[in-house]
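Person: I keep going back and forth on a fold encoding question. Show me how you would write down a chain together with its backbone fold. Please set it down just below, with no commentary around it:
Helper:
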Amino acid sequence: MTIVENQLMATREYNFPRELVFRAWTTPDLIAQWWGPEGFTNTNQVCDIKPGGTWRFIMHGPDGADYPNHNVFVEIVPSERIVLDHVSGHEFRITATFESIEGSTRVTFRQRFKEKEEFEKSKPICIEANEQLLDKLGELLENLTD
């Protein structure tokens, strides 16, 4: 995990083709299965994956609490990049890039907070949560290819 001003960055390499990894990020039923930290599940309400599209979902915590989320897709470049803004609660932008490396895919996950105060408050939670999210993505990819 790399930390720069108001931004967390994690990189992960998956032994799967870029198209499959990108599909896991852009198929509503799939993204609902892996998004979020360990122990959390999701229920999509609206998931319109296109520039300007809305993604509203409820993240269900392991403690039974529900966390409504609202995101807006800013940019989607097939098999290369996804940019989305989290506009509910803490405001931040997620940029995910996908790079082919000899049959594998390197995903770079950036989370940049709008406000420094929100970043500092969220950083201790998000560092571990983002790593868990990327772990869950890897598990989903393994399951898709079994």
In short: The radius of gyration is 14 Å.
